[in-house]
Design goal:
By secondary structure, this protein is mainly α. About 75% of the residues lie in helices and about 0% in strands. It has one domain (about 20-285). Pfam families: ABC2_membrane.
Length: about 290
Amino acid sequence: MTAPQNRGFVEPGHGSGLLDVGRRRYLLSLLVRKEVQVRYRGSVLGWLWSYVKPTFQFLVFFLALGVFLQQNRNMESYPIYLFSGLIVINLFNEAFGNGTRSIVDNGALIKKIYLPREMFPVSSTIVAFVNFLPQLVVTLIVCLLVGWHPEPTQILGLVLGMLIVIVLSTGLGMLFGAANVSFRDSQNFVELIALVATWASPVLYPWTTVRKVLPDWLLQIYLVNPLTTAVELFHAGLWFPTTSETADLPPDLLLKGGLALVIAVIVLLLGQLVFRRLEGRFAQDL
């Protein structure tokens, strides 16, 4: 008698990680829809919060830096420079923070059924990207009103910058999200990282101010930071075309963007590795 065939069956609780997320796109869309509905449940403004929060953030920084510290006089089109950097860092902070909390927040679902757990940080990144799009549209409209005339390479830089942030925040969200199940201090570390990320990238100030105080070798490390590169790619695509093109951008920006994407992919693979090692304890620790 031949052994029974088990072709088509898989061992429960085991999968292919992020590949399974791609194979279950319908389930991923349901999670994204659920997160969006929960976020704005009972809210009067609803989706308008996607505009209100960044607008207030922009006004605070613009008054403090643009008016009081006179950056608006020292830099051409400083409001566009400021907002194009803020929307990038907001995308990273929201995707990273939500991804870190995603496993714990969906603990009840994880304990009931098995599904690829990577779906939760991935869906958090998608929700953050959905909230990022209205901010990007507003920025593009303002840029068009002041004479935005980008070149194809600058448009490519915008796409590359978004891809860097999405891949990086997903990898970090998986890494810290897995650790957060057993060590809830991870959320506090993420808040500190988000605070540092805002000031460690040229969002509120030009990168040339860093060049003046850092030695060249340390400046290169600063520029290789994926967030710094993503922010500067957005400056190159949105702010630079609205200036008289005398503004100073980091050299070889697209090349640095490719390197930053490689670093982001490495972080994603590391996050997937740690996630797979720890996910067996999720139901127990939750």
